[in-house]
């Protein structure tokens, strides 16, 4: 289990909070912001094309075993999905399902490569929990529309292993956020506090009548290394690319 309270950031690591719950590296924030900026002028198919391009870049990083760069792209894509969450509603269900499978297979491939190298932890990736938590949530939402891939279970399993938090861990996280917020302009602080109030209200609505559980609740150690054809990136990528090639003009 990683200790958040005593964790030191890698040399040169800088971070940001793009939303109250989204603690990320500045590099991830920049990549995500660039994607989101481009999405503002595009329709739903245009947004999916942005994801296609990002997945292609991600795939090239994976083939070269450039795991740090791959993790950055994955984290940015995960945040992009959280904000631009309408693309799964396209009328092309197969394309949506295949896109989700490539995302999931890429995610699992990178996580397992980092684990094999002994680097799947917050000492190497301080914002690891943000990516795991949001990817797990996204995977669950995709299952609700029959886009099935168990990468959410892998994320929960890793989360359950790494993020059993103590009171000191929680205090450390709050201090980190407070320090970052104090460095922002008054306008940014006011906007951040507004978002915090909104998130708190949303959480109250979701948790009403239920005991609050950590995001990785239900994560099993047996899921972290489970085998699945959906995690075979070579197979999934080939199927995904073959389908895209059939789309006239690639909207």
From TrEMBL:
Residues 180-226 are annotated as: Disordered. Residues 199-212 have a biased composition (Acidic residues). Residues 185-198 have a biased composition (Basic and acidic residues). This is Uncharacterized protein. It comes from Mycena maculata.
